[in-house]
Write a structure and sequence with these properties.
The protein is α/β, with parallel strands linked by helices. Helix content is 43%, strand content 17%. A seven-stranded mixed beta sheet has the order 7-6-8-9-10-13-14, with helices on both faces. The longest helix has 23 residues, at 2-24. The radius of gyration is 23 Å and the shape is globular. Belongs to the leucine-binding protein family. Residues 27-395 form the Leucine-binding protein domain.
Length: 421
């Protein structure tokens, strides 16, 4: 009799344990760290939308897009249909806040991984916290080259980085000389002075020297400046043919307004993405944003080569009435990559997720980026990330380089302010 009772208790206890484990797996808590207030809040809002769409596809499906991973919905199949739960944190563009919020996500919210944080110097500090706690950190957008040179085991970046992007600028200048007959001799640099902008300045200076291009001016301005009048006056006096610029949204908008106010316009502005690819940039500036060329990683017109781009963008537009940008498309891809790793791990154990990320090998046909795929090297850098250049014309972004992918001819030089309608 006692044996029967113990046996019954053992069976009951086992059933309770199984029920508890199944219940525990119904929610996969992922921390997402972005700027939801401050100068980059508009960018953060678009990234939040992209994260929400990705989580919804994993949880509920997108049955009309069978080529998209998790299109069947129903959660993560290898974890019994567990659903993703996003835990949002606002770093405000502040590295210290980013560190504090990452620690809160890990210790208080008990997230199994962190996605973030767009702004490179915030990504640098927040990922240090994740490394200390041994929690996987997936970075979809930050392009500071040094982020994957720190010897971290828990940091993974899906986007390409500035060393590649800056080289693209100079390859582009070489191509327009040999294929379009446009020779650029004098270039100025205008970059914000956080980690991202400072590293970009060093790379641009090095490559200009190697390529025999004359740097007539190099200005690093304080990020979040309230005015840029004196800096723009200095640029105007230097009279460059091309201006290479790295600015987040608020600074990007203010600088273009100041260019027009002071009558400064080189033959071309080559922008280093960030604020120049935000929907708010073209919405705020209207025609004044036209003709700027920006490095990018995504463009809607590339759907001609990959129908998945338009199919997923249609979902995004139907829900939020905006198109993806390079920023939000990368964020979407980042969360989908992390979801793929957690599913393959079949576990919420951080080490199992980390190992699955190391083994990631996603084909380019199954992502919305114009990349060969996603596969990380021993530094956590996606070896298949690549870049394009887009030009704004009539408020829309058009791929203009590489020329093999171009959907329209480059407008060069930029029409002067007084000739624009």
């Amino acid at each position: 009799m006692l044996h029967r009772v113990l046996g019954k208790l053992a069976v009951t206890g086992c059933a309770c344990l199984i029920a508890f484990s199944a219940h525990a797996q119904q929610e996969i808590r992922i921390g997402v760290l972005y700027p939801f207030t401050g100068p980059a809040a508009s960018t953060g809002a678009e990234m939040k939308h992209a994260l929400e769409l990705a989580a919804d596809i994993v949880n509920n499906g997108a049955k009309d897009i069978p080529k998209l991973p998790f299109a069947k919905g129903g959660g993560l199949p290898n974890l019994g249909g567990a659903k993703i739960k996003l835990i949002f944190a606002d770093h405000q563009g502040n590295p210290q806040v980013g560190s504090t919020e990452t620690e809160r996500l890990i210790t208080k919210e008990k997230v199994v991984a962190v996605v973030g944080a767009y702004i490179s110097n915030v990504t640098a500090t927040s990922s240090q916290v994740a490394e200390r706690y041994k929690i996987p950190y997936l970075n979809p957008e930050s392009s500071s080259a040094s982020l994957t040179n720190r010897g971290f085991k828990w940091f993974f970046r899906t986007t390409a980085h500035d060393e590649l992007f800056v080289r693209n600028f100079f390859e582009f200048l070489k191509d327009i000389e040999t294929k379009k007959g446009i020779k650029v001799k004098n270039v100025a640099l205008f970059n914000e002075n956080t980690q991202w902008g400072n590293e970009t300045t060093k790379l641009q200076t090095q490559l200009a020297q190697e390529r025999g291009i004359n740097l007539v001016k190099s200005i690093s301005y304080p990020a979040r400046s309230t005015q840029l009048t004196s800096e723009v006056q200095s640029l105007k006096a230097a009279n460059p043919e091309v201006l290479m610029q790295s600015s987040y949204l608020g600074d990007a908008i203010m600088s273009v307004k100041t260019y027009k106010e002071l009558g400064f316009l080189p033959d071309m502005v080559l922008a280093n993405d960030a604020g120049f690819s935000d929907t708010e940039f073209t919405r705020t500036l209207g025609r004044d944003a036209d003709y700027i060329i920006s490095r990018e990683v995504w463009s809607l017109d590339l759907a001609k080569n990959n129908p998945l781009i338009k199919q997923v963008n249609d979902l995004f537009r139907a829900r939020y009435n905006i198109d993806f940008t390079g920023n939000s498309a990368r964020t979407f891809t980042g969360l989908m990559t992390l979801a793929d790793a957690i599913n393959r791990a079949g576990s919420t154990d951080p080490e199992a997720i980390r190992k699955a990320l190391v083994e990631t090998n996603i084909d380019g046909a199954n992502i919305i980026m114009p990349w060969k795929g996603i596969k990380f090297d021993d530094k956590g850098q996606n070896v298949h990330g690549s870049g394009i250049l887009v030009q704004i014309v009539d408020g829309k972004y058009h791929t203009v380089w590489p020329f093999s992918l171009a959907t329209r001819e480059i407008v060069w030089p930029m029409p002067k302010w007084e000739s624009r309608k």
